Amino acid sequence: MQREGLITVESNRRRYFRLGLPVPLTGMLQLVEVNGQMVTLKPTKILIFDISSGGVRLHTRIDFPTTMNMIVRVTFTLLGDQIQLIGELKRKKVIREHLFEYGISFITDHAEQQMLNGHINTLAVRLRKTLTNHIKSCSFSTEEEIKEMYSY
Q1: Using CA atoms, how far apart are residues 18 and 15, in angstroms rounded to an integer?
Q2: pTM for this predicted structure
Q3: Distance (Å, whole) CA 81 – CA 138
């Protein structure tokens, strides 16, 4: 892993460029399908720590069981656009009691991947030139949102 300024660039076997964020993005996660059955649940707040056109790594307080096939909707703001993508839970890590990290793989078509890739590349360039608090068009987490997620 290399550090370029405040941005982490990971070199690994992933298919997509993954942007490590110096400050997480705040978003929402909603469970939409369990084992092929549609469900309707209230969305929950998430913090997104890295993102690619193939998926995200995020933290949440929700403990999803790993034995079920779960499809989720991830929503966040990137460069002024509200992004809503469907994905599959791929990886779970317990951070501590009541705090979990998930790897989510997006289920997207080519057009959605291209759009997200363009946004991520533009954001990477902007982050090299400025601090996150100067990029108002993204849902970067406030100190209060971060404290709220980790206070328990």
Answers
A1: 9
A2: 0.87
A3: 8
